What we know:
The chain is mainly beta. The chain has a single domain (4-347), classed as Pectate Lyase C-like (3 Solenoid). The chain is built from five helices and 26 strands. The protein has a 17-stranded mixed β-sheet that branches. Strands 1, 6, 9, 11, 13, 16, 18, 21 and 24 form a nine-stranded mixed β-sheet that branches. Strand 3 (68-72), helix 3 (83-88) and strand 4 (98-102) form a beta-alpha-beta unit. The longest helix has 8 residues, at 38-45. It is globular, with a radius of gyration of 19 Å. The two termini are 38 Å apart. Residues 1-25 form the signal peptide. Its EC number is 3.1.1.11. Belongs to the pectinesterase family. Residues 71-340 form the Pectinesterase catalytic domain.
Amino acid sequence: MASLVALFGAVLVTILVLLVPKVVSDDFDSIPSDKSQLSAWFDKNVALASVRKDLDPALAMAESKQPRIIYVKQDGSGDFKTISEAIKSVPRSNPCRVIISIAGGNYFEKLLVDRYQTFVTLYGDPNDVPVISYNGDAKTYGTTNSGTLTVEATADYFMAVNLNIVNTAPRPDGRPLAQAVALRVSGKNGAFYNVKLQGFQDTLCDDAGNHLFKDSYIEGTVDFVFGNSKSLQEDVITAHANDDPNADLGFSFVHCSVTGTTTKTYLGRTWRSHPKVIFSYTDMGDVVYPQGWSCLGRPQYAETAYFAEFENRGPGAMPEQRAGFVKKLSDADAKPFITLGHINASGWLLPPPTL
C-alpha cells in the first residue's frame, strides 16, 4: 500500500481539515498562525478565474466558457436520478467546466470520474449535504479500487464541494483484505471543500497529484490517510509510501484538529523508506502518543523519513517527548510547507463555485 502519512492502531481518530491558500503568484505568503484570519485570507487571495492571469492554459480556456450544470435529484425533477448517470454523461475530452449539482439525500453508489473526464465539479447542496456511500473493500475490489468515489489519473482539475463520502464496509476485525477506501484521488490538481470522508482502514487514498483539502473532515482507524501525492490538508493520521529520495512529494497538515475516541495513536509511520509528513499549527488531543511517530520496527527508515512538526498545541503536542528522528522545524524550515507553493497552486487552484 502506498501512503504518505499514517495512523495505526485500533483508534478512531477524526480530523478537521481547514487549509487556506494563496494563488496570486509564485511568491506565496505563509499561512497565518492565527486560525481566525484564514477565511478572510482565502477570500482575498484565491481569486475567481475571470480575474486571473496565472492559470494553466488548459484550465483558463475551460473556465472562459459557460459552465454546463447538470442537476441530480432522486425525485426525478432533475436531469438524472443518480450521480453515476450524471458523471457518465460528461463527454471524454470535455472542454469546459461541468458542475454536477447534487440535491440532498442518501446515494448508495460507487462513483468513478475516469481519466478522460476533466474539469468536473461535484457540488452538493450546502443546506442539505448529500451522503454518498458504498461498501467496497479490498477483498472484492483491491484496496485502491475499493473507493466510494474514485478520481482517476489525468481526470485533472477536479473539484468536490459539500459532500459526505462514506465507505460502509465493516470495521477491520482481523480478517484479511479489510481495507475500504472512501475517496481515491489520482488526478492532477484537485480541490476539496467542505467534504466529509468516513471509513475505517484507508479512508483517503491521496494517491497522486497536487491536492487541497479545505474545511474538511477525515475519519478512520488505521492508515486512514495514505498515498503518494503532494497535498495540503488539515486533520489526518496517515502512512506515506514513498521510496524515492528525490521525489517532490509529501503531506502537509495545517491548522488541523486531531481527536479520537479510544486508545492512543501515532501521527505517522514509515510504511516505505522516504515518507514525508508535516503537521503545523495543529491542535492535538491526548489521543496522540507522546513519541508521536513510529518507524514501524524499521530503524533504518528513521534515517530517511521526514516527519516534522511546527508550532502545534494541545495535550498531544509534546515536542520534548517526540521520537529522536522527528524534526522540530524553525520558521524558515516550516515555510515551504505552510504555503500554497507546496502544491504548486498558482496555476490551478480556484475557489469553490456558488450555485
